Amino acid sequence: xxxxxxxxxxxxxxxxxxxxxxxxxxxxxxxxxxxxxxxxxxxxxxxxxxxxxxxxxxxxxxxxxxxxxxxxxxxxxxxxxxxx
Length: 84
Known about the structure:
This protein has 84 residues and is mainly alpha-helical. The protein has helices spanning 2-38, 41-56, 62-74. The chain is built from 3 helices and no strands.
């Protein structure tokens, strides 16, 4: 019983963290639109690194990562392709 309670607590915490990451991801996608429109190379580089971290965390797929990076570099951060 104690083991099941412990595992449940772990799952609840993991779920909480995943929800936070998902919420942050959607906010990040909106920010990418603004960053791409700004055409500021320093900000773009920082966002490319952030996109890579989202990929490493398993929040974005490799395809989504490449699409977002391409849109940042091109200055077209609409993000339409990531919502397949």
